[in-house]
Sequence to fold (405 residues):
Amino acid sequence: MKTIINIGELVGIVPEGVLRKQGAEMAVTGILQNAWLSIDDGRITGFGPMADCPSGKGEVIDAEGGMVLPAFCDSHTHIVYAGSRDGEFLDKINGLSYEEIAERGGGILNSSDLLARTSEEDLFLQSVARAREMMEKGTGALEIKSGYGLCPEGELKMLRVIRRIRESIPATVRATYLGAHAVGRGYTREEYVRVVIDLLPEAAPLADFIDVFCDEGFFTVEDTERILTAAAPFGLRPKIHANELAVSGGVQAGVRHNALSVDHLERTTDAEIEVLKGTGTMPVMLPGSSFFLGIPLGRAREFISSGLGIALASDYNPGSSPSGDMRFVMALGCIKMRLTPVEALNAVTLNGAYAMGLGEETGSVTPGKRADLILTRPGWTLTKLPYLYQTPFIRSVFLGGEPLT
Ligand code: NIG
Ligand code: FE
Fold:
């Protein structure tokens, strides 16, 4: 049992049973000034104003006026990768686009070659260090994709590494089989789609979700639907990469297959907004990729004013977003997408949790949920978080009620 007392601002309070925020609800979150919060057995058990603070049993932590908010929920990452692609960073500075780098054999295939040359142990050590960095920056739940193996052995190696990360860290991890991230070397696209499908019996037990990079130059809507149809009997719900490079039809394919999320969405028309209305599919935008690649930002404001919710995620990967800093993602949401701090908070917490199927488990200050919380240094408020977007703000991160050490 722990009680955090003298919380200057307790932020992200959401009633039980609310699993996501949509439309105008995005602008709402519960905030309590001068509060306490109790934790038992890793879960939030209660909170309230300091005037009614129960005489603390167990450990008492004095927040000294710091803010407490839900830990970030990053629903889209590719943190299992080998080495670095800083050579391509120079190509990018010299004017090559993401597509041009990929066409020259760089990009995802470059990471695939590096991964093939890296032992499973080394891949785990490199990748778990990234997970650790993310937790230190306040992330309490994250999704990790395969997709740099691009052959049966490589994909299984990645999924085993994700499993091992899941078992080694206090953050909650969800795994996604993204065999169809690029066509593996030596295969035609048709052959490779077959390889991805044929691997499902071995990949599915290691994964929660299925993903396809449904975009120009990668996989077609038809490929995507074949893979999603084959994955459904294995219980893998889709999370789709769509509309990063072109208006790809991936959003519509995702909705037809009851995707949990459709991600990227840098290039969308009103048709994508229309098709998402009234569905259980969460649109996930990745402003860190837009920032790094210099491509358009998702149309967050239009999505919200159309009644949709959005989640924001880091897309942490070596090619289009080499950062897992969710406070920066939140800041990009506010500065570049014109989200209010409350909308951005909902996008990086509750809606991110929803986009990983964790809406009942984490992502808000709700009794019964895991105590995945950030305690800030004194003086911080929700608005300051994206405003002072580089000032260190974290005093401690609690995951499952325990401080990260
Ligand atoms: O989400 N778009 C496809 N996949 C990643 C990039 C992967 C890479 O370049 O290594 C993304 O941006
Ligand atoms: Fe991605």
Q: What stands out?
A: The longest helix spans residues 120-136. Residues 76, 78, 241, 315, 317 surround fe (iii) ion (ligand 2) (CB under 6 Å). The radius of gyration is 21 Å. The first strand starts at residue 2 and ends at 13.
